[in-house]
Every structure is written in C-alpha cells, then in structure tokens.
User: Fold this.
Amino acid sequence: MSKILMKGNEAVAEAAIRSGCRLYFAYPITPQSELIEYMAKMMPKVGGIFLQAESEVSAINMVYGASGCGKRVMTSSSSPGISLKMEGISYIAGAELPCVIVNVQRGGPGLGDIQPAQGDYFQATKGGGHGDYHCIVLAPNSVQEFADMASEAFDLADKYRNPVMILADGMLGQMMEPVEFKSPKTDVEIAELGTQHDSWCICPNKDGENKHHHEINSLEIDPHVLEKHVNDLYAKYAVIESKELRYDTHNISDDNEILCVAWGTASRIVKSAINELKAEGKSIGLIRPITCWPYPYEAVKNAIAKKVKKVYVFELNTGQMLDDVKIAVEGKVPVEFWGKVGGIVFTPAEIKAKLEACFK
Assistant:
C-alpha cells in the first residue's frame, strides 16, 4: 500500500474511521481543528455520525452514552477543552466504558496559546478528573505513529473497558509526513465488534432468553460497594501495568554515561542531538515512553544499572514526566531537567549543548 502525505490531525482521524469508529462528538479548538473538520467530512460517507456539540462537556457525555451502547466512539480536543471533559472522563472510567480521547496539546495554563507544548502530562497520567482512576495514555512522536495508535487505542479500550487517551501536541497535529494506513475494517468486522460488547452494553435491552436489562452506572451510595468497585478497578490497572507497557530505546548500551528520557515530539529533537554526539564518540542513550501510563519505570531503572552518571530529562513543560523518572531512578544517580514552555520548541543544537556540558 502506498503512503499518503497527511497532517497528523487528519491521519489520526482517517485511521480511527478505518478502525471502526462510527461515532464522533467534539467541539472545535485549535490546534486540532483539522481533526474535527475531517470527521465532519468523512463520517457521513461511511455511515457514521458526526456531531459538533454545543460544548466540550456535552461532547464527552455523548461519548459516555454512545460507548454505553457498545459502539466505537471518539472525541478530540486541545488542552483547555480536555479540562472541560475531565468530569465526564472520570464518569466513563468509573462506569468502565471504552472510548478514545485525542488531546492535541497547546501552551498553557489557562487559554495559553495555540503553539505546541507538553503541559498536560500530569492531567493525562495522574487522573485529571476526580476520584481514583487511570486512562491508558499513548504518546506518539510521528504522524505514522499517531495514525497507528488510533487502531491500538480502540483495541485497548475494548480489551480493558477503559478510556484511552492519545497525548499528542500542536506540532504533531499540524506537521505533514508520509503515512501508510492499515486496511479498513469491513462492515462485517465492525458489526462483530458490537456483538463483543453484548455481555455488558445497554443495547441488548430485550426480554427473553440470555437477554436482560444491563445497568451502566458510576454512582455507588453504599461505601462498601464503592470500595470493592475501586479495588476491582485497580486490580484491572495492575494487569494493564504488567501487560501493556510500551517504550522505545535509542543507542542504549552498557557504555552509556548519560541517559536521556523524553516523550512525544520532544524525543525526536533529543534523538537528533544524541546522533550528533554519538558521531563525536559520546555514549548517550535515550528512552522514550510510548505509554505514559502505564509508565516504563523498570526500563529506566535498568538503563542506569551500569555506567550511567546522570539522567537528563527533556520536555516541553516545566518538568512533569520528571517526577516519574525520579521515581524510576530511586536517587541512584543525579537527574537533571531542561524544558521550554509557552509554545517554544527547543532545537537539537540547544539539547546538544546541554548534553556536552555533562562531559566537562
């Protein structure tokens, strides 16, 4: 299959449709506007439903209802819009419903600006909404990976009956790169996806053999019932942590003196700087978390076991993944951080200068 040059926002939308998404609810916000525009154009062509809600709050609650009916459903937004969805995301996690949420991050806090940033890591990985819950969080660093993650996100959401967030940024949403798509699911395959949910979704709402009225709810008045429910959720999260970790490594070896950790598009810039330093004889490795939750703590811990003298974390924020890296390192080596905020993106030359200073 030939590759197509596409923006990240459009590529993830096309991949979602090919993965069987037939319901999409959202509200416009930059820098993910092309995603909602693409869905508005394409969903009717595949017999799907596109609806521009009156607000982000409405959109996420439409996702709750559609998911409760056993359908593959997606929403998308950017930073402040995701904040408005957080109550609904907590409800969805509490009700154990599958859905996909795309966040194309912009600078913040507040309305901030429309430039790329990575300031929503805490919000995505540490809950974001109220109560004890987790979203599975995937962080792409290329348009191809952004598209591939749409299919993976729907599969993970269905497998664990859990919301999955794809945490991209404005740069990835707006850049154009060649993309190769998987073959679209057939109508038969999409219909079969729905039948997989019959054991819990609200659709088999008929009297008769093997049919009953299913209840979908996140409200538990009895504290003992709620305690059991939350503990059951965390038993599920433990399974996810053991089976669904994803990370990428670059130039990792027993001779590494410096270990870099970066995620998303920032990791591509760090990788370029490492390649230049490698050509000059410096031994620096990179770990890129692909799942920001669950986080690859063991991978970071194992990477510093030999000669690593320092860990350097690079993010487009003031240091959010930094906390997870420190947990992984357990104080065994120094951890430094450098980042850019406000929508400003660091360059390979700037990263190279920071790393060169570590060898002086």
In short: The chain has a mean pLDDT of 95. The longest helix spans residues 223-243.
